[in-house]
Amino acid sequence: MRLLLLCVALALLPACNDSAGAPDVRPSDLYTGEGLRFPDGAIPEGGLPDGGLTPDTFVDPNDWDGDGVSNDVEQQYGLDPKAKDTDNDGTDDATELGDPSSPKDSDGDGKIDAKEPSDFDSDMDGIPDSQDSDDTDGKCGQVKRLFLNDTLTQDTTLGKTCSPYKVLGTLGVVNGATLTVAGDVTVRLGPNAALFLGDNATLGGLNLAGTKSTLTDVVHPVTLTADTSQPAKGFWRGVVAENGALVVLSYATLEYGGGPTGGADPKALLLVKAANGITLNESTLHHAAGYGLHATLKNTGGKLFLGFQNNTFGDLDHAAALNIRHLGELESGNDFGTAGAGGEVQVSEGIVDQPATWRSTGVPYVFVEPSINIDADLQINAGVKLVLAANSAINVAYSGSGRISAQGSSSSPVRFTTQNGAAGSWQGILLHGGNNNLQNTQIVGAGASSSSGVSAALYLSVYANLSLNNISIMQSAADGAYFQRSGSDCSQVKQEELTFSGVTGCGLYCVDDYNTPGQCLSTAP
User: Fold this and answer.
1) Cβ atoms within 10 A of the Cβ of 114, count?
2) Which 3 state secondary structure label does DSSP give 93?
3) What is the pLDDT of residues 337-362, one digit of tens each?
4) Which of 234, 323, 233 is nearest to 278 (CA)?
């Protein structure tokens, strides 16, 4: 009972909505001096939301990670108060630190054991740092290979001679600096480690500069992976462009990241919150929790993706999440995995305000917004599948500045549907204006009541034109198509280009200047 009342009281405080995975400061328990760590309200697999009344653990507010070393002492020596083993070498901070007034320095090199991984050889002279009193006499003695909660403020290059490198905690790139990682370099990241590009005030850039020989076709990749012999998805956090300059991934592999972010950010191998431009070519993002790529920002200054081709995504909860404005920047050769097994491109926002071409990726574009408004020329290539949100609509603007051209083929139609494809699960394609073209197109599960006042899978207003060829309308909860014509009569509509199945109402209902309120020209089977 005491615990329940305490949890209820603490649940009212903002601090009690913590993200799982890292204890934070908590109000003191009035009875025992302990704090509580609460989860972030996420829904675990097969379970209900773990909300404010269910604490994950008891946490000493003076020792968040429970390693026996107080937060103050950990901060004094540059240790991580939220990790029991700051240097990730298998021995906890308390053991390696010893007496806080005289911390252990086993090799006498001036670096305390708790910040010197026993399994790392900084200068690559064959002697582990924990036994090496001089870790600057090897071939990499003047090269920084171990990054422990560091910040780069100048351009830095990690060359292949001293690979692999290790990142523990966070590595920030700020002040306009760029971190370049050369081909044939591996960067190993510890538990919950992350690479941050930029901050609130300055930019940070990243260039993962893998290459491929034009003579031998040999690839010299860059690899960012987990610092463990038994990697698991979500071991490290990911690359986060908080305020990115140019972000370049070329012949790069990112794997085993996507761990808890400690906040509201989605889990992703590459999370782009702000960036001047991204190049993602010939790279692999796989074996991770969350997303491979999450870049839902709208770059109002122009293109976000300066290159996006021949990339591979796999073994992910979701392959990618993009803003609709940048969907047309996807180029050829990308493999987003298998549909139904995380292979999808989620699309946020719903306004097409500049000309774009949406290419087939082999997996669906899954839209999360309630509607798509088309105010520019949009071409949709053969084989594209669009999965619309429930009760959504595709609207072509009244202004005439927008048009839709779906160019499917008989073997690779363009398909508009929802997750279940059930009749009436979305409104349909509403052509309010523009000169539109639908070729070899399937419209599935539409017919919900629309803002036009007409319920039909395909609506054509008097202000819009439509060229059509081989249009299949399936599982409509109302009419299949509803056309309004002015200056021409319904007899000019190419009815033979429309086929219907599973349509509740009329197949084609048409209204013209001579026939008001209209007539059913084609009865759906």
Assistant:
1) 28
2) helix
3) 988 788 999 999 999 999 999 999 98
4) 323
Strand arrangement of the beta sheet that strand 305-309 belongs to: 156-158, 178-182, 204-209, 244-250, 275-281, 305-309
454/459 Cα distance (integer angstroms): 8
Tell me which amino acid residue 161 is: T
Q: What is the pLDDT of residues 316-340, one digit of tens each?
A: 999 999 999 999 999 999 999 988 7
Residue linked to tokens 């006499």? 137
Q: Which residue has the tokens 């990697």?
A: 231
Distance separating alpha carbons of residues 360 and 332, to the nearest angstrom: 9
49 near 41, Cβ under 8 Å? yes
H or E segment at 9? helix 2-11
| Torsion angle defined by CA atoms of residues 316, 322, 324 and 325, in that order, rounded to the nearest 10 degrees | -150
Is the CB of residue 293 less than 8 Å from the CB of residue 270? yes
Report the percentage of the chain scoring pLDDT > 70: 88
Beta strands in 227-283 (DSSP E): 238-241, 244-250, 252-255, 268-272, 275-281
Name, in order, each residue with C-beta under 8 angstroms of 341's C-beta and a sequence gap of 6 or more: none
Whether 267 contacts 238, CB under 8 Å: yes
pLDDT grade, residue 53 (50/70/90)? very low
